[in-house]
């Protein structure tokens, strides 16, 4: 149970048999499996209670009554969710009773101490040849969620061709060349490894820019009947000088969130008026530099920041264009650490608490601040526009209140980004056209109900542009077949990178795919775990994927969709230099960010 999504992500797979004391369920493998089932039901009940109290809180705030037309939709969604959770819990209980865990109505018969285990139904002998192996049923493992047997997770399909590129996972120019090696941008990965080394981030420039233009055009078209739309590239996903220039040339704005990102953009010649500065804890120097450069907007994140920006603007004798980041209370269907609009988190001004309205009053009262609009961002890796519907409704409710009580019209609205991408076959992202059309329909409908004009809108895709355009190329080192008891084993494929260049698996429990990139193989597929070289048991790059059984030292492995939040989150853990970033296009490659060297690391050590 690798923790893929939902309640399964909180199942405890540790070898704790104390909960079985005095119960008919024995410790051991079956006991642990049944205990995990019991815990799933416990978490389901807790989640049901939590969501039900959320519904009550919505009613207490009166949101289900204003306007009356929304009562049906809000209540129907909430009740539907509760009914679904109840049905899920009942189904889990029925399944648990069938296998007879403690507390069910059909207890499993206990055996006296020392009694022999009952004989199992004879099973066919397992295949003796490694090439005959097939996926087996999963089970809990003593070492925890990221360890287990050699069976594939339920979402991972058995490949018809282990050498094939799965559509949607790879950038638009990826293919196999005549020798069977992976080729991207017309450049073979074997050539990249020879000339640039490994590990290396390989950016498909054509794919990156096509995705950027697709978002620009889709939102411009969807909002053309109204006040229009802007698209800002979220630089936090990945930013360097070349990327800033691509974004500028393709007509997007740029979202930065630190002084360092701002410095990269300005050095690349990016127009300051098309830059938005974010951040929940901006320093005085960052704000000062942004105002001196003439950035298009500073997104204020807290009440104290209003006074901070106004004071620095006064010192510079300028008027600061600002937006207010508001928190809508939306709980996006995403990982806890990347959900950013629920109440209990560090970002934004709460609409529910009244801080957002207070902030609007304070900004309008300042002669050094110009209110440019409102900003909202609900999280990342989101596939359902339903979250944007709730967020837009609550932000537009605030816009209507500002107009009614303060006489001020908000004519700019930024709904952030967070659009999901396909990391593996369990993900089905929407196209830019689908996203733009769906969100435009939502905003049009909500504005009509509130009697508002549709404002000028902005969006901030980052991952959806940078992520799929990039792969990471690794060299294979040690390949280790670890026996786990009985017929179970795990094939570990160690590569020359790891969590220093991709920490998302460890940080977010992210699932990635991979491919034997330097050649094709006729060997049967085998479930492997791709791990890094670092002194850390959680140093996992790809938790589960099928690769040819003959993967060996000297091979190249490519991991797709690593363009977002991989290099940006890279570190020097274990004093490992960060990889190079190269761009490929039309059969040529060039360095965007050079590989760090040991001399770079030693130069920083001045003690």
Automatic annotation (TrEMBL):
Its cofactor is pyridoxal 5'-phosphate. The modification N6-(pyridoxal phosphate)lysine is found at residue 236. Substrate binds at residues 463, 504, 508, 536, 565. The active site is at 535 (proton donor). Residues 479-563 form the Orn/DAP/Arg decarboxylase 2 C-terminal domain. HAMAP family: LysA (MF_02120). This is Diaminopimelate decarboxylase. Residues 102-120 have a biased composition (Low complexity). Pathway: Amino-acid biosynthesis; L-lysine biosynthesis via DAP pathway; L-lysine from DL-2,6-diaminopimelate: step 1/1. It catalyses: meso-2,6-diaminopimelate + H(+) = L-lysine + CO2. Belongs to the Orn/Lys/Arg decarboxylase class-II family. LysA subfamily. PROSITE patterns: ODR_DC_2_1, ODR_DC_2_2. Its EC number is 4.1.1.20. It is an enzyme of class 4 (lyase). InterPro entries: Ala_racemase/Decarboxylase_C, DAP_deCOOHase_LysA, De-COase2_C, De-COase2_CS, De-COase2_N, De-COase2_pyr-phos_BS, Orn/DAP/Arg_de-COase, PLP-binding_barrel. Residues 1-34, 92-138 are annotated as: Disordered. Homodimer. The lineage of its organism: Bacteria, Bacillati, Actinomycetota, Actinomycetes, Micrococcales. One of its GO terms (molecular function) is pyridoxal phosphate binding. The keyword Oxidoreductase does not apply. Specifically catalyzes the decarboxylation of meso-diaminopimelate (meso-DAP) to L-lysine. Residues 208-466 form the Orn/DAP/Arg decarboxylase 2 N-terminal domain. Keywords: Amino-acid biosynthesis, Decarboxylase, Lyase, Lysine biosynthesis, Pyridoxal phosphate. It comes from the Bacteria. Pyridoxal 5'-phosphate binds at residues 418, 460-463, 565. One of its GO terms (biological process) is lysine biosynthetic process via diaminopimelate.
């Amino acid at each position: 149970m690798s923790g893929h999504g939902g309640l399964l992500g909180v199942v405890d797979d540790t070898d704790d048999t104390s909960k079985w004391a005095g119960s008919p369920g024995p410790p051991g493998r079956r006991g642990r499996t049944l205990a995990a089932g019991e815990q799933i039901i416990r978490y389901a009940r807790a989640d049901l209670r939590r969501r039900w109290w959320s519904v009550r809180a919505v009613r207490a705030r009166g949101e289900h009554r204003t306007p009356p037309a929304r009562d049906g939709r809000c209540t129907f969604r909430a009740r539907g969710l509760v009914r679904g959770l109840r049905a899920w819990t009942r189904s889990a209980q029925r399944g648990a009773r069938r296998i007879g865990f403690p507390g069910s109505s059909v207890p499993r018969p206990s055996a006296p101490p020392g009694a022999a285990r009952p004989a199992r139904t004879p099973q066919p002998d397992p295949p003796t040849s490694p090439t005959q192996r097939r996926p087996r049923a999963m089970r809990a493992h003593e070492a925890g969620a990221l360890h287990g047997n050699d069976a594939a997770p339920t979402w991972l399909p058995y490949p018809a061709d282990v050498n094939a590129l799965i559509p949607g996972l790879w950038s638009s120019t990826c293919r196999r060349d005549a020798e069977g090696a992976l080729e991207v941008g017309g450049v073979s990965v074997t050539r990249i490894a020879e000339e640039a080394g490994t590990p290396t981030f390989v950016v498909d420039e054509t794919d990156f820019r096509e995705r950027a233009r697709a978002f620009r055009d889709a939102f411009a078209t969807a909002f053309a009947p109204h006040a229009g739309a802007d698209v800002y590239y979220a630089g936090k996903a990945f930013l360097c000088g070349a990327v800033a220039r691509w974004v500028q040339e393709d007509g997007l704005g740029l979202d930065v969130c630190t002084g360092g990102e701002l410095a990269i953009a300005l050095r690349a010649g990016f127009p300051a008026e098309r830059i938005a500065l974010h951040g929940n804890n901006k320093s005085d120097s960052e704000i000062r530099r942004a105002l001196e450069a003439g950035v298009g907007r500073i997104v204020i994140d807290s009440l104290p920041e209003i006074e901070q920006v106004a004071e620095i603007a006064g010192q510079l004798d300028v008027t600061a264009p600002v937006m207010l980041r508001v928190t809508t209370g939306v709980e996006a269907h995403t990982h806890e650490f990347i959900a950013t609009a629920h109440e209990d988190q560090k970002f934004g001004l709460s609409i529910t608490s009244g801080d957002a309205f207070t902030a609007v009053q304070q900004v309008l009262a300042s002669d050094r601040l110009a209110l440019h609009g409102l900003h909202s961002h609900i999280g990342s890796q989101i596939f359902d526009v339903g979250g944007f519907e709730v967020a837009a409704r609550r932000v537009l409710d605030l816009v209507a209140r500002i107009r009614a009580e303060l006489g001020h019209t908000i004519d700019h609205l930024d709904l952030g980004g967070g659009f999901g991408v396909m990391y593996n076959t369990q993900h089905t992202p929407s196209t830019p056209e689908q996203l733009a059309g769906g969100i435009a329909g939502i905003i049009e409908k909500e504005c009509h109900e509130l009697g508002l004009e549709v404002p000028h809108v902005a969006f901030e895709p980052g991952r959806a542009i940078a992520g799929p355009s990039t792969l990471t190329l690794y060299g294979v080192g040690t390949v280790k077949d670890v026996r786990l008891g009985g017929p179970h084993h795990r094939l570990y494929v160690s590569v020359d990178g790891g969590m220093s260049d991709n920490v998302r698996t460890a940080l977010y429990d992210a699932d990635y795919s991979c491919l034997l990139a330097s050649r094709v193989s006729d060997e049967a597929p085998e479930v492997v775990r791709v791990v890094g070289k670092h002194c850390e048991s959680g140093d996992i790059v790809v938790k589960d994927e099928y690769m040819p059984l003959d993967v060996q030292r000297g091979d190249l492995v490519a991991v797709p969709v690593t363009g977002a939040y991989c290099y940006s989150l890279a570190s020097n853990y274990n004093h490992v230099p960060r990889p190079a970033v190269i761009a490929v296009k039309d059969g040529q490659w060039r360095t965007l960010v050079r590989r760090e060297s040991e001399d770079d690391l030693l130069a920083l050590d001045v003690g």
